[in-house]
Records
---
Amino acid sequence: MQILDIITKKKLGQPLTREEITFFARGAADKTIPDYQLAALLMAIRLNGMTAQETTDLTLAMRDSGDVCDLSAIPGKKIDKHSTGGVGDTTTLILAPLVAACGVPVAKMSGRGLGHTGGTLDKLESIPGLSVEETEERFIRQVQEIGLAVIGQTAALAPADKTLYALRDVTSTVDSLPLIAASIMSKKLASGADGIVLDVKTGSGALMETLPDALALAQTMVDIGKLAVAVITSMAQPLGTHIGNALEVKDAIDVLAGRTQGDLLEISLLLGSHMLVLAEKVKTLPEARAMLENALSSGAGLRKLAEMIAAQGGDPRVVEDLSLLPQAAVKRVMRAEMAGYLSAMDTTALGMAAQRMGAGRAKKSDMLDYSVGYVLHVRLGDEVTEDTLLATLYARNEAEAEEAEKAIRKALTIAKEKPQTPKLWDAVVTAEGITYNR
Ligand code: URA
């Protein structure tokens, strides 16, 4: 079999056979196919799509490109959660400790930033000393001991995704339904969880911007995953107020410490509630929410996060002392300059602004600056006057702060009319069907 023939076939829009897809996934995993040919095939898939059968074949071939994790040594149902990616989307750092504090083991493998979206591993690595590289054995032991671990996928798990994920990030091939579905579900099927809660984003900062596209992605993943629930949530604006790696860790700690409420907390409680129900810890979502709120107000969630940080070699004092997180050299404030209502945000552009400040990668080999990013002080629908504080920027130098300010200003639309604010979540998709948030 020749990779060139497979690229040509997909370029012409023809469906690939299971054997061809397996050849591609194995070649990505063991690097026998060079990056430039993988990248060409990724672009052909991005442009011409895949059938449902091809998408399932790709998912299973990527899962089988490495080991499948056996979590049976951890008692109880293990429920995973995965987001299709967003900006200021720090739910894992909030819900994982809360769910674990409620007695449901969380053995989670997370990803790095992709395109304009942030990644949990990059955020966690901004905590001094913390390691996200663990062997499967140590991962399982940590969950047995403290009920919680969040690590990078081990080298042996879905290695095809490791290669393809990094290539997609730098070849503009992230926003492809079959590639997203196969990437997420191959890892989730390989990571050995009993059930999965999928957070499928929609809106200006989502990989799938429209509700129909987000529903199609959710349905594809639920169909592949069986014990999966997908919640369609809004990315019409960054979910949390902080964007950037250490800044998002701070946001999560502020939420767990009870200092910050708002959309990030709401979505964390919603997704966490679905996790508790899937784990059969409780029967209903309201019971689950009450349990999570209790773990929040008692401080048990924050203590669990500190335990996890310590178990992974990090400095647990960060949960009490945020100044231990990396701090940027330059701080700049940005004001509104005109009166009106914040009526729209280009959330992808907001994510790219943070990436260019050094919070994300433009090339595979780029090193991140964990300290940089910005805090948005306004939400969609807020009324602003000429000098309302819009954002505080944290940058490496004045020139990058200036460039980021321009990009953020351009991404925020201030209009005379008060806009309709988007719903926080639109629908829940299960194997049984779709329930809309009316
Ligand atoms: N998250 C993933 O793990 N993969 C994607 O392709 C997109 C989001």
---
Amino acid sequence: MNLLLYGAPGSGKGTQANMLRSHFGIPHIATGDMLRAEIAAGTSLGQKAQPILAAGHYVSDEIMIAMIANRLRQPDSRRGFIVDGFPRTIPQAEALDTLMHELGRHFDRVLYLRVELDELLQRLSGRLVCPQCQRTYPPGTALCVADGSDLVQREDDKAEAVKPRIEVYLQKTIPVLDHYRGEGLVSEIDGMGTIDDISRQVMAAVTAQPAKRA
Ligand code: AP5
Ligand code: MG
């Protein structure tokens, strides 16, 4: 099972990926989480990426394509994967097509979580994350259920970074959806309900008849 999660910042990609990862036992490959791990580890890539993420801009296609190519070639990806946060630009989508072809794989489904702007802004401003395992939590949660860490606010959820994140998503990432619509792979999910409601819709889309491939 190879799945691609698509949606705006705060649409619930990470939240639904946790559910899918537990259900299918396949890795959740989130480029944002990978960049934050590089930043936390203080690598040269992390040092380069930190101000870009903090400002709500995109890291270069060149860096991101190399990062996903390396990750999808890891042995644990052979069982399948849930990709979250990539591709975000048309050149990234084209590079991913080539990579999937080279790996002899295809996406079974692209899950588009559709959420209204006001709701996105509310979720991002209230979100808490675990600095250790990067699980996300709604406002009011104190500790991570997985490792007991104190939760923190993500640097790019501060008000000044949220507007550029939404703007760059509308400008560069919305066109990526059409790339996959053309292949008949996209399932649109109403992302405005409760987390459980949305999980049910996601599972129904994933277990539906295989998409007709172009
Ligand atoms: P990334 O980490 O991918 O951030 P994002 O796309 O902005 O998405 P988020 O992680 O903010 O939201 P989400 O959809 O996962 O929502 P979540 O489940 O947490 O990327 C970060 C940055 O890295 C980018 O800005 C860019 O700089 C860089 N980057 C990454 N990939 C790149 C690439 N390919 N190219 C270039 N640059 C790249 O949910 C949000 C909140 O809402 C949580 O608190 C959650 O508990 C809550 N919530 C979830 N579902 C519901 C619900 N149904 N009802 C109520 N609350 C809910
Ligand atoms: Mg996320």
